[in-house]
Write a sequence for this structure.
């Protein structure tokens, strides 16, 4: 499973035994539906894998002021490595970063109606 128990990775999705899930939950499902469901599940797994491959990691670094505290012991170093790894892959932080970048660009060019309406 992935680090956050609410998040499923592509590998987690593939790891499910879809045949036993279908037969345990609804044993009366017809074969055609089973195959259709499995085909959709496999197709979804392939699409998720493509998304994972194409996903860019954020360029994230620690502040220099924090480095002395981080380097004090091996526990801090390990926690920081795990934290940085998670932050680089976090889709919410990535999207927030994209929104802020777009907002800054729009404010420089004056193309955003929200920014222009706040100037009055």
């Amino acid at each position: 499973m992935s680090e956050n128990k609410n998040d499923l990775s592509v590998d987690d999705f593939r790891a499910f035994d879809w045949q036993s899930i279908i037969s345990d939950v609804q044993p009366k499902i017809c074969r055609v539906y089973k195959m259709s469901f499995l085909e959709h599940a496999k197709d979804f797994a392939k699409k998720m894998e493509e998304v994972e491959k194409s996903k860019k990691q954020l360029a994230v670094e620690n502040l220099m002021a924090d480095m002395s505290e981080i380097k004090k012991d091996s526990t801090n170093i390990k926690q920081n490595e795990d934290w940085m790894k998670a932050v680089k892959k976090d889709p919410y932080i990535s999207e927030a970063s994209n929104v802020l970048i777009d907002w800054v660009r729009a404010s420089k060019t004056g193309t955003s109606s929200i920014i222009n309406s706040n100037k009055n």
About this structure: Residues 10 and 48 are 6 Å apart (CA to CA). The helical segments are 10-15, 18-25, 31-54, 64-70, 74-89, 91-109, 113-118. The radius of gyration is 22 Å.
